[in-house]
Specification:
The structure holds 2 protein chains of 2 kinds. By secondary structure, chain A is of the alpha/beta class. Chain A folds into 2 domains: about 170 residues, Thiolase/Chalcone synthase (Peroxisomal Thiolase, Chain A, domain 1, 3-Layer(aba) Sandwich); about 140 residues, Peroxisomal Thiolase, Chain A, domain 1 (3-Layer(aba) Sandwich), CATH 3.40.47. Helix content of chain A is about 30%, strand content about 25%. Chain A contains 9 helices and 13 strands. Chain A has a 5-stranded mixed β-sheet with strand order 1-7-6-4-5, sandwiched between helices. In chain A, α3 packs parallel to α4 and α7 packs across α8. The longest helix of chain A has 23 residues. Chain A is globular and about 60 Å long. Chain B has 4 helices and no strands. Chain B has a single domain, classed as ACP-like (Non-ribosomal Peptide Synthetase Peptidyl Carrier Protein, Chain A, Orthogonal Bundle). Chain B is mainly α. Classes of the chains: A alpha/beta, B mainly alpha. Chains A and B meet through α2, α7 and α8 of A and α2 of B.
């Protein structure tokens, strides 16, 4: 039976670093140390002027090629998840197809999702592979939220960083799911709590730069409400128990929220990965970055069953189970 | 859980001296109260009292005693 499976994951971060010391120098009135102790973030990586989502995505994908995981001409579908595209149009995935030298017979499309985007992209990749539309899907996540952050907004400047990740999903034969099942959800009533309202057409171009608005307490409450039932639903679909999962990798929103969720869900600390100290919240790339870091720390043996959970802007959420390659 | 225990939890959360709160204080005027404190309070309500509050619930409160009322089990009827 045809099964989609993750073959490899890699990531790329831009050069420039924004440390807590930098923020404290810039804003002496911010209690940066206190914030750092809550968020678990020491530094964020910031894309340079003119460095866009496609640039980060290309760099992440190139790492998979250099490692010999796959060659460009073997990729027959490109999915790119971003909320900070280079242009309104064309689709960033089309730009990236050309820059990576992927075949012109490959499909390519963007999906606009944030913190849930990695799980959704894996779901789409599974559909493409298991329906026979593609054999090797290159799934890229890339965002440069730094370009929509208000310098004076403590709540977002301390959390978000830029980055990109590349995941190769390919066709295998097997009896058991190596990717999935999935559980997802959407509630657009939460749109106003995490939004870049300007820059589209609803409010016209206007004079102001598009900036991100985040209502942290609302997002926190939303997360407490949706994540526990989401996980219960996924476990039911997978016919397994919490104990059967080897490692939990949640969207790395901030350490405070993750620690609260871990306690609430009674997940043992050793099975729960937290890793955003060096890069902050990179939106749709947090889960793949965390997967790579967990593997580098020796916490992901081959075949490990990992639960991925994404939640945020939309509101949008999703969870799945993967087998680590 | 008693009112006294609640006050102690809030004191610990805000790093205030133990038994320094009376309940009559306006909570937004507590030392160090900010958006992180709102998060910490939402977390405390969820973890220790099993009550998932919305930020609006907190905003409607005036005093520390109002916050305590929020985490009490809802009376039937």
């Amino acid at each position: 039976m045809i099964r989609a499976a993750i073959r490899a994951v890699d990531y790329h971060l831009p050069e420039a670093r924004l440390s807590n010391d930098d923020l404290a120098r810039e804003h002496p009135e911010w209690s940066v140390e206190k914030i750092a102790s809550k968020t678990g973030i020491d530094e964020r990586r910031i894309a340079a002027e003119g460095e866009c989502a496609s640039d980060l995505a290309v760099a992440a994908a190139t790492k998979l090629f250099v490692r010999g995981v796959v060659q460009p001409d073997q990729v027959d579908y490109l999915l790119l998840c971003t909320q900070t595209p280079d242009h309104f149009l064309p689709t960033t995935a089309c730009l990236v197809q050309s820059r990576l030298g992927l075949p012109t017979t490959a499909g390519a499309l963007d999906l606009n999702l944030g913190c849930s985007g990695y799980v959704y992209g894996l779901g789409l990749a599974k559909g493409l592979v298991e329906s026979g539309q593609a054999e090797r899907v290159l799934f890229l996540t890339a965002d440069t939220y730094s370009k929509v952050l208000d310098r004076e907004d403590k709540g977002v400047r301390t959390i978000f960083g830029d980055g990109a990740a590349a995941t190769l999903i390919e066709r295998t034969e097997g009896d058991r799911d190596a990717l999935g099942p999935f559980a997802v959800g959407t509630d657009g009533r939460g749109a106003e709590h995490l939004i870049v309202a300007r820059g589209g057409f609803r409010h016209g171009p206007g004079g102001e730069r598009p900036t991100l608005h985040m209502n942290g307490p609302e997002i926190f409450t939303f997360t407490l409400r949706v994540v526990p039932p989401l996980i219960a639903q996924l476990l039911e679909r997978a016919a397994c128990r919490l104990d059967d999962v080897d490692l939990f990798v949640f969207h790395q929103a901030n350490e405070f929220m993750l620690e609260h969720l871990r306690n609430k869900l009674r997940i043992p600390r050793e099975k729960f990965f937290v890793g955003m100290r060096r890069c902050g919240n990179t939106v749709s790339s947090t889960i793949p970055i965390a997967l790579c870091d967990a593997a580098a720390e020796g916490r992901l043996p081959s075949g490990a069953r990992v639960m991925l959970v994404g939640f945020g802007v939309g509101y949008s959420w999703g969870a799945t189970l993967i087998r680590w390659p | 859980m008693s009112r006294e225990a609640f006050l102690n939890k809030l004191e610990a959360m805000q790093e205030l001296a133990q038994n320094s709160l009376t309940g009559a204080e306006r909570y937004v005027e507590l030392q160090g109260w900010d958006s992180l404190a709102v998060l910490a309070f939402l977390s405390l309500a969820d973890e220790d009292y099993g009550v998932t509050l919305s930020p609006d619930d907190v905003r409607r409160c005036n005093t520390v005693d109002d916050l305590y009322a929020l985490v009490q089990p809802k009376k039937a009827g």
